[in-house]
Amino acid sequence: MGRDLGLDGVVDHFTLSGDEAGWLRNKTGATRLGFAVQLKFLMWRGRFPRMRLELPPDAVEHVAKQVGIAASELTFYDFTSRAAKRHRSELRDLTGWHECTKTDLVKLVSHLVDVIWHDEPREEQVRTELLRQMRAEMIEPPTAAQVGTVIRSALHQADERAVTEVAARLARADGCTRRLDALVFTGLTGDGPAQDDATAQDDEDDVESVLADIKAHPGNVSLNSLLDEISKLKQVRAVGIPEQVFAGIGVQVVGAWRARASASSPSHLRRFAPEMRHVLLAALLFQRQREITDTLVELLNSTVHRINARAEKKVTEAFVAEFTKVRGKAGLLGRIAAASLGAPEGSVRDVVYPAADGEKTLKDLVAEMKATNAAFARSKREVFKSSYSNHYRAGLMKLLEVLDFRSSALYAPAQATAEIDLAYQLLASLNLRATTINVRRAELIRDAGSDSVDDQIATLRTELDIAGPASLTPAIELAGAFHHAVLDDHIALNATLTRLREQTSDEDHAYFVDIAHFMAGLPLDDPSPAQWIDGEPATRSRWRALVTARREHLGSLR
User: 381: helix, coil or strand?
Assistant: First the structure.
């Protein structure tokens, strides 16, 4: 016998309704009990029991009590007999359930394809959906072999439909399929003169090389790897895969297509049907474009970090070398220490000044030490700019040409809210003050032009003045400048500009002052040392456009 269902299960699934009890009137003994058990098992599992061992003992006891027959009488009921088969036919007529026909199988496959074609088709999920649909349509499950056939057919047709849909989208994109074929074919037009074997082999090698380059992952951080990834991104973009070509298609499905394309050589891809070949190559390029873009951002960060680290190391070595050349400082310190210990009760003027060869020497030494930090920072910036100008400039300029940097706080407030909420969740158990301040700065930008922003800015200023880090203050002021520009509040904006000038007087983030002027549509007070990649007019226009877009957004909410 099967396992007991428990009281709740038995009551829910094996209690006869009034109508069902009426169907037993002309039946007695084991026949009455067997008929009732088959009925409730059908309603519970969506099929008839194949043998008595499938029946839960407590369920049989519960049904037996309802029909007034001892549960032991069920041993005399043969589930394979003609009477049992006749009972099943009678129950089908009474309940509306029916055996699975060929027409049902076709409809079930069609339903499964409609449900799963755009998502990852896992066999167990398909089986679950199949059984659910058969129960909904009151169809008894066919044999295990037929179920397997239905599932395999549905999986195959679902993949074909997904391929057909994506291939149709690619075909609607002007010239896209031709450019995809160019990645694996040579001499597509066939209009030119016949090629000799050597030329054909060269073309074949070129095709192999292009596809292999696109598939390849970047090497170590260097200018060459940066330029290689930029070249890959341009090659991928040149094919022109539509952005929405895989809209509604599961990520796992696209990933499976990409994996097939990655594992196939051009010669193998040529053997696929055109639709399949186009879809596989499109999936490869679609995902590689995203991966290469992410790689370029990582390379940008790594490159800037490397330039900074090398500049700091070079300047540190130079300052250490310069300090060791001034040998008099060590002797001067020794004389001052000896004189101080020899006359601890004496005044500085009487004891220390003579040992240091006079007051002027000490003043010069203090001035030199005060200047050291500023000089170090200036020297580091000079070396940083030199490295950029002489070696990395070409690569970084090309990188900025192919990447489009956007802030969701500026361009998509709704998306920014979700990202800010996620950031707060991730920071909840961490003590990362600088990161938390940056998240709050994103909130200022997202809410620019709103009544609450002035209070938020004042609170942040106070917190940074008391607890730091002071390095974040200019960024907060720049966010405030954006807010005041949106409101066209010139009084508050002028006050913010004054604070920005003071905070960037050491030349760090001095360009923030320029950006604040650009956003407000104001001319610069003095010629700026900042050099903009696209020139000042284009840069000014973009920053001003952000303010205009924010005003339009706020206007649409009113």
Answer: helix
